[in-house]
């Protein structure tokens, strides 16, 4: 059975023995989806397209203008053809209508004698319904064969060849504007004719000769699959086959990417040496050229990712997570190599675009990852990300690894800084962390802030909050009162008390800098739990 039923097919049926095609011969290949008996003049909103219209001519009788309007509406509604009796109610067929139908390849068919419309519709509807059942069977058979092929194929071209031979239409797949593949292959001239179809630059009357569907992989459109035909319209059956094929292509590409990711995971020795600074620039470039020949790196950095309950994730879970992350970050101009090290996921990122905006692009990628509904195994994705210094020479990636580890250590001990992903953004927190390693930071903090801390503890006066905001507002009393939601007199009273506790010179430049630094240090000590709640009385 044919994949579709055309006007020409129906003209071979028994009730169309005594007819004449008077216009639109070039449209006899139009697809017929249903039959309507219609004798009204306003029909635009009554049709869905591809209907064969049967009429007695009663609607327009001998009114040439009304007849012309009816044909215009049928063409605009994309009806398949018009069949009407000549002689019963109308005997005219003006040349203007014939010219209009020929211009739009719209068939007009005359019954030269009275015909039973009821029997015609019954016959054609039976044919169409049987055809629908056959299409469902064909679709199921196609799907089964395609699923079997997925077990053995090694190239997506085999899938494209399969659908092309099944539907006998031109197939194309668009991976990128500069990467369009045609099945079967076409010469340069035909390629130039087909490109406008793919770019959606074709006249309206040819719009039914093309269909497309995106190939989605983990939420990202990896390609677009097209069916193109110059000789017939694309049917609903074609579109169903197209959807099934797109799903199969997505499964094949996902499997391909999965095995590529798995192969990368097995190449850990070199990456470990790279992180330890034991690889030369030439060796690194050779490694990149072999494993990622399309990548032209412009420097890079290390990103550490701490996942909750890392040990409970299977290799499949982690591979899926890394594949999902790769899909996101490649859209923002990065690629990466990854290994698991010391309970962490370590990503060596390579930048493939401008170095001027790498942090902005990386932040956008992180936000997209966090906003996704990604699950790793049974767990919603939770993270702690730490990004080291950017290095121009990839042999220095070990420095980025060390600074990423320092960033993660500060984040771990100072929970408020989890939103600071980059080592370069930690600034004063890095100094505080270093000082705390070598000095008794608590004692220095108490030397400056103990009077305020003790006063707040005793009277709940909120002097520490006032001091923080007053310094952050550069001594602006109006802005400080606004941020604290207090009246001026309340603020003046608190500032007087701060002068009594810290000294009248606490806003002098040198002392102010020291106090601000100690406030940051105090928050660090509290947040990192070095000062236990029970011991905060001494603070």
Protein model, in words:
The chain is α+β, with helices and mostly antiparallel strands and 539 residues long. It has four domains: 7-125, 3-Layer(aba) Sandwich (Udp-n-acetylmuramoylalanyl-d-glutamate--2,6- Diaminopimelate Ligase, Chain: A, domain 1); 153-256, GAF domain (Beta-Lactamase, 2-Layer Sandwich); 267-426, 2-Layer Sandwich (Alpha-Beta Plaits), CATH 3.30.70; 435-538, Arc Repressor Mutant, subunit A, CATH 1.10.10. The chain has 18 helices and 15 strands. A hairpin with a 2-residue loop joins strand 11 (334-341) and strand 12 (344-351). Helix 2 (64-76) runs parallel beside helix 3 (95-103), helix 13 (428-438) crosses helix 18 (509-527) and helix 14 packs across helix 18 (509-527). The protein is elongated, with a radius of gyration of 37 Å. Residues 463-517 form the PucR C-terminal helix-turn-helix domain. This is PucR family transcriptional regulator. It comes from Mesobacillus subterraneus. Residues 9-128 form the Purine catabolism PurC-like domain.
